[in-house]
Amino acid sequence: MVSGTSEKKTGRIRLGMVGGGQGAFIGAVHRLAARMDDEYEFVAGALSANPERAKASGKELGLAADRVYTDFKAMAQAEARRADGIEAVSIVTPNHVHFPACKAFIEAGIHVICDKPLSFNLKEAKQLETLLKKHPKVIFALTHNYSGYPMIRQARDMVKSGMLGEIRYVQVEYVQGWLATDLEKSGQKQAAWRTDPKQSGAGGAVGDIGTHAEQLAGFVTGLKIDSLSSDLTSFVKGRKLDDNVSVLLRYKGGAKGMLWASQIAVGHENGLTLRVFGTKGGIDWAQENPNYLGYNELGKPRTILTRGGAGANAEAARVTRVPSGHPEGYLEGFANIYTEVARAIKAARAGKKLAREVTFPGIADGIEGMAFIEACVKSSRNNGKWTKL
Ligand SMILES: NC(=O)c1ccc[n+]([C@@H]2O[C@H](COP(=O)([O-])OP(=O)(O)OC[C@H]3O[C@@H](n4cnc5c(N)ncnc54)[C@H](O)[C@@H]3O)[C@@H](O)[C@H]2O)c1
Asked: Both ends of the chain: CA-CA distance in Å?
């Protein structure tokens, strides 16, 4: 109905972006995710570190000329002054820019949707937490997008409701093979900054994809890491940051786990898999086949639960768009995070309480992720010594 559409249009959240210009990877994914449920309107950006590219990117994406910026600080200030200024900003730059960009927008009172890992180091992460306490109206989200998948929501609910019993063991891995050679030397920009400690931070694979695995395991099980023993390696000659990490985990409460993150796992693309074992049963899930969740109830035959299918629960259903058998994937999972954030922003706008079931990763996930990276680096430097988070 036309009236419905126009009503929704006026309610859209005005969104800006830092990073994500021509030649960038994840910014375009954020823009697609923001559009999927028609909750946002993309209106401003400081889209590149290169001013000419920032201007060309803004033009190409149809932004008004006066909303295309070459400096994110100027953008935060100018947008905060406008009556029709952005209400939220997506930060999709390399890691070392996350902190100054988050700070500029939080201080301007603008909601922030930042990509992971939260910052360059744990110190910055804690400063952001303090800053957010000073600006309690600012909503902060961190796009650990894998927590947006319906079957992950289902797995989390199954753990919460006790279907798996007491959790004993967690096995999580995120393995890729795209950095099996010194791709960074070819000038490939995503490889170049990820392997540069000045832009990436102290972690290579452990920060880039290990934090996704760490966050996913914590999201599903509710477990918090107590201590870990890790072994970081840079297999590619001359690389300054790790491209492979093996971690043994001890969770608070006694559960244990194992995490493997690798970017030299030849032939693997985005092999994020999670297995959780409890006293009453276990679940298993793989990101590359995300519409299915394996469920093994103690003493019963194996079951495959399907997104949108007969075994899907309410938590999965509320973030499901199309019926079973029509695959949903990466973009839909990402969009679920954006839409959950939109619910929070709209509840805040209306002065209403946020519905209990709305959930998205935030500052606490970011702090845990940065603490995880730093503990892994420290433990590995100390020959795998058990290190508290
Ligand atoms: N959630 C996910 O699944 C996922 C996937 C990929 C990347 N990421 C994260 O997203 C971020 C970006 O990764 P990417 O692969 O898209 O990198 P990229 O190199 O493709 O893009 C980074 C963009 O940031 C811009 N930029 C750098 N400094 C800037 C500044 N000061 N002002 C404005 N723009 C600036 C660059 O010009 C570029 O457009 C990283 O933090 C990464 O860890 C997350």
From this structure: 53
Task: List pLDDT tens digits, range 210-258.
Answer: 999 999 999 999 999 999 999 999 999 999 999 999 999 999 999 999 9
Q: How many domains does the chain have?
A: 2
Strands 303-306 and 225-233: unpaired
Atom 4 (ligand 1) nearest CA: 26
Q: Can you give the pTM of this predicted structure?
A: 0.96
CATH number at residue 68: 3.40.50.720
DSSP state of 352: P
* 103 within domain boundaries: yes
Query: Does 345 fall in a domain?
Result: no
Ligand 1 pocket test: pick from 26, 52, 124, 146 the residue with the most ligand atoms within 8 Å of its Cβ: 26
Same domain, residue pair 101 and 200: no
Contact status, residue 58 vs residue 68, Cβ threshold 8 Å: yes
In a shared domain, residues 221 and 188: yes
Q: Which of 22, 25, 120, 370 to mutate to test the pocket of ligand 1 (most atoms within 8 A of CB)?
A: 25
Label residues 274-300 b or e (16+ Cβ within 10 Å = b).
bbbbbeebbbbbbbeebbbbbbbeeee
From CA 198, how far away is CA 205, in angstroms rounded? 15
Q: Which of 138, 160, 176 is the last residue of a domain?
A: 138
Q: Report yes or no on 143 lying in a domain.
A: no
| Cβ atoms of 214 and 369 closer than 8 Å | yes
> What per-residue confidence (pLDDT) applies to 356?
87
Domain boundary among 138, 161, 192: 138
Strands (E) located in the chain: 13-19, 40-46, 88-92, 111-114, 140-142, 167-175, 225-233, 244-251, 256-262, 271-278, 281-286, 292-297, 303-306, 387-388
**Are 169 and 287 members of one domain?**
yes
CA dist 351 → 147, 161, 236, 339 (Å): 27, 31, 53, 18
Q: Where in the sequence is the domain holding 186, given as residue range(s)?
A: 149-320+362-388
Q: Which residue has the tokens 């798996």?
A: 164
The alpha carbon of 29 and the centre of ligand 1 are apart by a number of angstroms equal to: 11
172 shares its domain with 205: yes
Output the six-digit token pair for 15: 């969104």
